Amino acid sequence: MTTPSGAESQIRLQAKKALRKQMRAVRAALPESACETRSNEIATRVLALEEVRRASTVLSFASIRNEARTGPLNDALRAQAKRIAFPRVVDEGLELHLVESTAELVDGAFGVPEPPGTAPRIEPSDVDFALVPALAVDPRGYRIGYGGGYYDRLLPLMTQALACVLAYDFQLVAEVPNLPFDVAADLVVTDARVIRPR
């Protein structure tokens, strides 16, 4: 991929902001029943993946603001005796901590539930499969999050993990205006399909 010029980078930044705002509004309008139905479809597709069956340690996230619900998926993964880790914001990065139950999560940065600092910590390289949130994602695996760049900094550190974006199918767009620091995921799972960018 060629590096975009300064002017092109600014255009892409503005396009990302506009797409972020649009997707927030669309997702916010999704009824609770639709969130649950679509999330169950996503969970079914994730659990059917061979890479998930083989994984022993999975990085998950606590759903907020009408994101794809991870609760039932986390329960199913625990039932398979997998270790579940959640991210915790520390300065400009994410630390990963194991939790036995989402009941252990506490209010964290930006209103996102996260593990307490006392929970057992693991290294990013210990993760086999990573569930990644997104506001929008494209078939290449590039995503738009909330703009903090936390996952773009974390993904390269998870050297053993397959990174999987969870999104509703309407969050799939033709192309995310990615920038040089953006990191693509290995898989995209929606309520309608599984996409393997590479």
Known CATH architecture:
3-Layer(aba) Sandwich
Helical residues, percent: 25-40%
Strands in their spatial order, largest beta sheet = 6-3-2-1-7-10-11-12
Unreliable sequence segments:
none
Q: Could you give me the name of the CATH homologous superfamily?
A: NagB/RpiA/CoA transferase-like
Largest sheet: 8 strands, mixed
- Describe the global form: globular
Element string (H = helix, E = strand): HHHEHEEEEEEEEHEEE
The chain-level mean pLDDT equals: 93
Give me the CATH fold name: Rossmann fold
Beta-strand content bin? 15-25%
Distance between the termini: 15 Å
Summarize the structure.
Helix content is 29%, strand content 21%.
Structural topology:
Elements lengths: L5 H23 L3 H16 L2 H5 L2 E3 L11 H9 L3 E8 L2 E6 L7 E2 L5 E2 L6 E2 L6 E4 L3 E2 L5 E2 L5 H5 L7 E5 L20 E3 L4 E2 L3
Parallel strand pairs: 1-2, 1-7, 7-10, 10-11
Antiparallel strand pairs: 2-3, 3-6, 4-5, 8-9, 11-12
3D architecture notes:
With about 200 residues, the chain is an alpha/beta fold. The longest helix is centred in the N-terminal third of the chain and has 23 residues, at about 5-30. The protein has one domain: NagB/RpiA/CoA transferase-like (Rossmann fold), CATH 3.40.50.10420. Helix 4 links the parallel strand 1 and strand 2. It has an 8-stranded mixed sheet with strand order 6-3-2-1-7-10-11-12. The mean pLDDT is about 95. It contains 5 helices and 12 strands. The chain is globular. Helix 2 packs parallel to helix 4. Helix content is about 30%, strand content about 20%.
